[in-house]
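call fold target=Ribosomal RNA small subunit methyltransferase B
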Amino acid sequence: MTPAARISAAIEILDAMLDGAHAEKAISAWARRSRFAGSKDRAALRDHVFGVLRCWRSFAALGGAGTGRGLMIGALRAQGVDPTEFFTGEGHAPEPLTAAELAAGSAPTGAARLDIPEWVWPLFEASLGEAAEDAALALQSRAPVMLRVNLRQGSLAQAIAGLADEGVTAHPHDIAATALHVTEGERKISGSACYNDGFVELQDGSSQAAMAGLEIAPGARVMDYCAGGGGKVLALAARADGIFFAHDTAPQRMKDLPVRAERAGVRVTIVETGRLRDEGPFDLVLCDAPCSGSGTWRRTPESKWALTPERLDELTKIQRQILQDAAPLVAPGGVLVYATCSVFNVENQDSIRHFLSKNADWQLVTESRFDISDGGDGFFIAELSKKS
Ligand SMILES: C[S@@+](CC[C@H](N)C(=O)[O-])C[C@H]1O[C@@H](n2cnc3c(N)ncnc32)[C@H](O)[C@@H]1O
C-alpha cells in the first residue's frame, strides 16, 4: 500500500470508530476485508489510528473537523506535512481537500491542545499541579516499550546480549535496576527465547520501581489481592524469597499466571475468594486496584475518551471497598499496600484518607508518586500499617 492508501484506510477505520466501533475491532475488521495488506501496512495503520487516538482533540482542531478525514488532515498538519501531498484522489489516495477543508482548521488551545477531555483537565491540574501539563503532553506520544529482567535467571547484560541475538535492541533504564528500554525490534519480543523462557517480561518501569521499593523479609507471606495477569506478584517473586499468593475477583484474568510463574522459575499459589481467610493472614497484602488508568493513557488512549464522571465515581467506591476488604487479611505487624496506575488524587491520596478516616487503628507509612514524564507510566503506591 502507498502511504496515501494507508491514510485512506485510517480514515475508514476512524469513521467506523466514530460510528461506535472499538479501535481494535475496527482495525481487525478492516484487516479481514483487506487481504492485500501486508504486516507493514497493518503496523502503519495501527500507528495512524493510535496516534490519532492519543491526540484526538488537537488533531480535530488542526484538521477543522472531528471526522476521519478531519482527524487525518490534522494529524498531517501536526507533523508539519501539507495534507494536499497525500489527499490527491489518485489511486487509493483520499479525495483532494475541498475549499472548505483547505480553509478550516486552527491551532488548538487549552485542554484541547493537551488532548485531555475538558472535564478531566481540572482533575489533572488539581492532582499534578505544575507537572500536569508535562504529564498531558507525555500522553500524546507512544509509550516506551519496557522489559523487566528476571534477575533469578541472569544479569541485565546477559539479557541485553540474548535479546540482541534475536534482533531486539534494549538498553538499561535508570527508572529501576531491572528495567530495559527496547529501542528496536519490539515486535520480535514475544517470539524470543528470552521472553518465552521467563528471562524478561513486558512491564512498565514505574511498576518495576514501585515493586522494587517494597520490603519483603525471607519467608514473608505476600498476597497480590488484585492480581489480574500477575505482573506485580511476578516482579516481587523474582526478587524476594517470600511465599507468594494471588487472588482476583475475576479469576479468569489470572489464567496465564501459572504458566508465567513457571517460566519465570517462581511459585505463586492462586487463592479463591472464599478461601482468603483460611489462607491468610499475610505479611504483605498488595491491592493494585482497578482505576481510571490515567497514568497509562498513552498505551490505552481509547480509555482517555471513554472515562466518565460516573465511572470515576464508581471506581473510587470499588477502590475504597477493596482496601476495607483486604485490611483484615494483613497479619499483625504486616503491611497493606495500595497502588493504582492513576494520576488522580481522588483515586490515590483520597482513597487512603478515606480508609484512614474509617480505620483509626491504621496509619500511613509511605506514599510515592511516579510521574509519566519520568519515563514510565503514572503510578501511585502507599504502604499502610496497623498502629501498635
Ligand atoms: C489494575 S488491575 C491489576 C493488574 C495486575 N496487578 C498486574 O500487575 O497485571 C485490577 C484487578 O483488580 C481486579 N478486581 C476488581 N475488583 C476487585 C475486588 N473487589 N477484589 C479483588 N480484585 C478485584 C480486577 O479483576 C483486575 O484484574
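return ok
Residues 3-108 form one domain. The mean pLDDT is 97.
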